[in-house]
Structures are given as structure tokens and as C-alpha cells.
Design brief:
With 519 residues, the protein is an alpha+beta fold. It has 16 helices and 22 strands. The chain has helices at residues 13-20, 24-41, 65-89, 94-97, 103-107, 155-168, 172-175, 184-194, 217-227, 283-288, 301-304, 306-309, 312-320, 337-345, 371-383, 489-515, and strands at residues 44-47, 50-53, 56-63, 129-136, 142-148, 205-208, 230-232, 237-240, 243-248, 251-255, 257-260, 293-295, 331-333, 350-354, 364-365, 388-392, 398-403, 406-415, 417-420, 425-427, 432-436, 450-457. The strands form six sheets. Strands 3-22-21-18-17 form a five-stranded mixed beta sheet. The longest helix has 27 residues, at 489-515. It is globular. The N and C termini lie far apart (69 Å).
Length: 519
């Protein structure tokens, strides 16, 4: 928000001045409104067997329009590349024949599924929704940390965070032009409908969830409700004659697109784990016949593999003939003996990650690890080098975050979301900023003590007015920068009620006084 001399950057000046006008009591009041809003709406996630309210830091993260243009172009480039790679791997495999990616890297990946070979969606799209995690290091360069093309999560929190912030800081949205996120869900639904078979007419889209005990069930229910589609479990679906149907109270209904929030291994017991009871038998055959689209496509996990990640810069040049707009974090392939020996020799300087890990699980941060942890990861790497990568440690950039009555620096990353309708990759403005709420922590995952921030992509040109976000009604008057934000609607409403009560009491006293006056 400020430079080394404590001066706010041009695009953060308005927010900086607004925060200066707030007292600790103001922030506490707004924090209470945020907490009540999330609790009443059930905005939660599950971790360690408990249900937690999703943490939202009150201080938004600001991104200038110039910087966002770089992010937008880089994310779109990456999604187009990985789309081409997946089509190639499950098709002609020319990329393997040309030696750009070794054959062994693909076939030994846990995310690679032979059952997906030859399956092409009706509009050719495999990556309907992508989440690309970005970080900024000490050199100021934005880099890609990892790709999420299987079942990327978090898009619901982007929308809910913005709704909460319009209640908590309504005045700030009058002073700053911020790209709206209200269109996220509609854009996502358009991409899903575009994936339907050509003879579908008005396609039926469903969201397939493993059920209420899944840690992300809130998001499943939220997205289904916002898109106006049915939220179904595997037992609600059946396949017959290579077509998919949904059981309803009025009979069976044909389904054309399945937005699945179930991992590949549990999606179809005929092709994957036979003991699965949350999937639908025959779904893969229906997809192969072209009668239903699965979003995201099965087998996308090979692109999420962190060893594949190390080849993405080469893939961008191979498929697009372009230089990467967003570079990778420097990554070492531990399946190469010389590289492995060098990395193990400096294990206390590097970060070791399992190639199929998620949620921060299994990561060993060398500079912060104990001797026992370093010895443990060394044994694991030597036992299965294909299952690990090493990366240079990136000290994530920091942004101001609330800690009690203070604003303190906390490390963050950014997950922009992109949808693909077969004609264009749409990178949705903003994204999910995840913040490590614990002092000194580099782990931003909510399951390990992380939280989130509303991400404001600012509009630099006043000729491009944003649409309104959230349920609030904006007034035409603009607050001056030095005026404090009026506060949440609940607070203003209570002040109005107090004024009305005071006025009524004054009227009653006047009436009683008039009764005692002599005629």
C-alpha cells in the first residue's frame, strides 16, 4: 500500500486516506458486521472435522489496472497452452513424440487417466474453469506458483467477499471505481452451457457434489443456487444407452453438462474406483459418446502435476510460439539424478513439494524445517524422486491486514479464475487473495490458518464505469476523500432508529407539557 518511505502508491491513496479516518471502534464494528453476515449465510469450510466461518480480512487488496492487464494476458496464455497440452496428451501425443515432455513424466503421473484417451468434449474444451495461483517475490516479479485445472475451488468466496465488503465499506465503492465480480457466476454458466452437445437445445446443467459432508459443500450449494441449476449427488443420476438422466419428482430428465466437484477416482465406478458410491456408473461412456460434457474433463490432473508444471514455459513456446508472460517459480526436477543430488545438498535452502499435493499438505520449507523434517523429506525423495519437486524459496509479498487494533504486513498469494467457452478464455477480474493470517507464516491455505481478502482491480479510466456489486443501493453523492466511510448499513440503520426514537420522545414530552399549560 505504501513505498519504502511510507508514501501511498497512486492507486492506493484513496484507501489509505479512508483508513486513516477510521478508529479502532469503527473497525471493530465493521468486523462484527462481517462476522454476522458470514455466520448467518453459512459461509464456511470444513477442516479437522469442524465447521469454520471463512476468514475475511477487512482490508482489501488493491491491484492497478496496468498490473491486472499483465495478469489477464498471462493467465489466458497459460490456460490456452494447457488446453492444447491436454488435447494432445489424450489425442495424438505429438508433444511426447517431439520430446518436449518425456513420455515417462505423463504416464507415471497420478493425474493421468487412460480412460480419458480419445474423449473430446462437444466444443473441444477440457478446461472449463481454471484457477492459477500467483505470487510476487522480493524481486517484484509476479510468478505462477501452481495450476489448478481439476476441480478449482474458491470462486464462491470471491463473490461473497465482495458482497460482504459492500456492506462493511459502502462509501469506498463510491470513491473508487472497482471492477465488479457480480458477473463471475453468469460467465461461468455461459461457459458450461457452451460445452453442451449441439443437439441439446436449451441444455440442462447440473452440479455434481459428493454431499453435505464435503469440506467445500457450501461452495457447491452456493454456485448451484446462483447459476439456477440443480445440485445433485451420484444417486440422483443414471446412465442409459450412453445418455445421462436426472431423477426428478416428475420423472427422468436428460442432462447435457455435469459440472462435477468430485475427483476423477470417484466419478465413475465402472472406470475408476469400483467402491465409489458418490459417482455415477456409465458417465465416462456417455461422455465418450458425446452425449454429455464433464466439466472439468477427466484426466486434467496431469496438468496439475507439479512436475508437468516445470515444463509449462516450454509448452507455451511449443504450442503458441510465445514467451511466457508469467514466469514459473524456479523449479528443480528431482527425477534427474544430478539435480536431485544438488538439491538434497542444499535442502535447508529449498522448498520441497509432493507433485500431487494440495492445500499446502506435505510441503517442507527448508529454511524453517527441523533436522528431523529435512531428514524425513530426504528419505522420501530418495525413495520416490518422481513424486517430488524442489523450488527456490519465494518470500511472498505482503499487504496490510488487520490484527486486533493494528494493521500489520501479512503474506499473500492470488488465485485468478478463468473460464473457457471454446471461443475465448475469459479471465475474471480480481480473484481470490489468500492471506497467511499467522505472523511470519507463508502458508495461505484456509485449512492451515489462512484467510482471504477482497481483491479490487481498479479502473483507471472514468469512461469505463463499473457495474454495481452486491445488494446495496448506491446514492449519487460521492463522499470526499477526507470524509470517513459512513459504515455498514446496519450501523446507519441503528443510528436512524435512535434518532427516530429520540424525536418521538421529544414529541411526547411536548404534548405532555401542552396538557399542563393554563387555558
Amino acid at each position: 500500500m505504501v513505498d519504502a518511505e511510507g508514501t501511498p502508491y497512486p492507486h492506493t491513496k484513496v484507501l489509505y486516506e479512508a483508513l486513516q479516518a477510521l478508529s479502532v471502534a469503527d473497525l471493530d464494528e465493521r468486523g462484527a458486521v462481517r462476522a454476522r453476515s458470514f455466520l448467518e449465510q453459512g459461509i464456511t469450510f470444513s477442516s479437522s472435522g469442524r465447521e469454520w466461518v471463512f476468514p475475511l480480512d477487512l482490508i482489501p487488496r488493491l491491484v492497478s489496472e496496468e498490473e491486472w492487464e499483465q495478469v489477464e494476458a498471462g493467465v489466458a496464455q497459460r490456460v490456452r497452452t494447457l488446453e492444447a497440452f491436454l488435447a494432445d496428451v489424450y489425442g495424438d501425443r505429438q508433444v511426447l513424440a517431439d520430446g518436449v515432455v518425456p513420455h515417462s513424466v505423463v504416464v507415471t503421473s497420478r493425474g493421468f487417466h487412460r480412460a480419458a484417451a480419445g474423449i473430446r468434449g462437444p466444443n473441444g474444451v477440457r478446461v472449463h474453469l481454471a484457477g492459477i495461483d500467483l505470487v510476487r517475490g522480493g524481486d517484484g516479479v509476479l510468478r505462477v506458483l501452481e495450476d489448478n485445472l481439476r476441480v478449482p475451488s474458491g470462486i464462491s468466496y470471491v463473490v461473497e467477499n465482495r458482497e460482504a465488503m459492500t456492506r462493511v465499506f459502502p462509501g469506498l465503492f463510491l470513491e473508487q471505481q472497482v471492477h465488479p465480480v457480480a458477473g463471475y457466476i453468469a460467465t461461468m454458466l455461459d461457459s458450461l452451457r457452451a460445452a453442451a452437445p449441439p443437439d441439446a437445445g436449451e441444455p440442462t446443467v447440473v452440479l455434481l457434489t459428493p454431499g453435505v459432508y464435503n469440506s467445500a459443500y457450501f461452495e457447491h450449494a452456493f454456485l448451484a443456487r446462483k447459476m439456477g441449476i440443480e445440485l445433485v449427488e451420484g444417486r440422483d443420476l443414471l446412465c442409459r444407452d450412453n445418455a445421462l438422466y436426472m431423477r426428478t419428482t416428475s420423472g427422468e430428465r436428460r442432462v447435457h453438462v455435469v459440472y462435477r466437484r468430485i475427483d476423477d477416482d470417484f466419478l465413475d465406478p465402472l472406470h475408476f474406483r469400483p467402491e465409489s458410491v458418490v459417482g455415477c456408473p456409465g458417465l465416462v461412456n456417455a461422455a465418450r459418446a458425446g452425449n454429455v460434457a464433464i466439466a472439468n474433463a477427466i484426466g486434467n490432473g496431469i496438468a496439475d502435476d507439479k512436475l508437468t508444471y516445470s515444463y509449462v514455459p516450454d509448452l507455451i513456446e511449443y504450442y503458441l510460439g510465445e514467451k511466457p508472460l508469467l514466469p514459473n517459480v524456479p523449479t528443480f526436477r528431482l527425477d534427474e539424478p544430478d539435480v536431485r543430488a544438488e538439491c538434497l545438498a542444499r535442502s535447508d535452502e529449498l522448498v520441497f513439494k509432493p507433485v500431487d499435493g494440495s492445500g499446502g499438505q506435505g510441503i517442507v520449507i527448508g529454511p524453517r524445517a527441523s533436522d528431523a523434517e529435512l531428514a524425513g523429506v530426504r528419505d522420501k525423495v530418495l525413495a520416490a524422486p518422481r513424486n517430488w519437486i524442489a523450488q527456490e524459496m519465494v518470500m511472498l509479498s505482503t499487504v496490510p491486514s488487520q490484527d486486533g487494533d493494528r494493521l500489520v504486513p501479512r503474506h499473500v498469494d492470488l488465485r485468478p479464475f478463468a473460464t473457457n467457452d471454446g471461443q475465448r478464455v475469459h479471465v475474471l477480474p480480481g480473484g481470490l487473495t489468500r492471506v497467511a493470517l499467522r505472523a511470519g507464516s507463508l502458508v495461505v491455505n484456509s485449512s492451515q490458518g489462512g484467510g482471504s481478502k477482497d481483491t479490487w482491480v481498479l479502473i483507471a479510466h472514468s469512461s469505463r464505469p463499473p457495474l454495481a456489486d452486491g445488494p446495496m443501493e448506491l446514492t449519487s453523492a460521492v463522499l470526499p476523500a477526507e470524509a470517513p466511510d459512513p459504515g455498514p448499513p446496519e450501523q446507519a440503520q441503528r443510528q436512524q432508529q435512535a434518532q427516530q426514537q429520540q424525536q418521538a420522545q421529544q414529541q411526547q414530552q411536548a404534548q405532555r407539557h401542552q396538557k399542563h399549560l393554563p387555558c
